[in-house]
Amino acid sequence: ALARAREAGVLVVNIDNRLDADALRGAGLSVPFVGPDNRAGAKLAGEAVARRLTAGDEVALIEGIVTADNARQRSLGLEDAAREAGLVVVARQSGQWEMEKANGIAAALLTAHPSLAAILCANDSMALGAVAAIEAANRRGVLVCGFDAIPAVRPFLDDGRIVATIDQHGDRLAVEGIETALAILAGE
Known about the structure:
- 48% of the residues lie in helices and 14% in strands.
- By secondary structure, it is of the alpha/beta class.
- The two termini are 25 Å apart.
């Protein structure tokens, strides 16, 4: 579809979730990207959790949709933080970006891994699901991080139930994408 758009003279700018680089190459396309560095952002959230833990502590990842580039990059960033801090990733499962799914996964993780110190989540909805599971299991010492800085996590950040989230400035992505398109059209 993008190749046909380009052939028709339509300017294409990729915003937020990076298109698959292999698919673009295969189609002979080069498309400008405007969006966050999901790996670097997730690593920052993971590092905020890691600073409160000790090498050897057990952590688990609740990932997004594993076929999505932003989910893969966020998982890599969380793994980077865990590896660099000497944490042990005992499990990783996809929460499909959903709070309820993450809640069920987190509940099972807490049962399967009694020494679990943290649950690193690829978005805030899943982090909220993890927090609910932690509270239901009365395991309040288990740390959680997320990604997206949605307003619903503010009280959880304030009281420490979520250690960190990453604001990718989603409100600016479309604006910057349009500015990029206008700059390209202007020959910049």
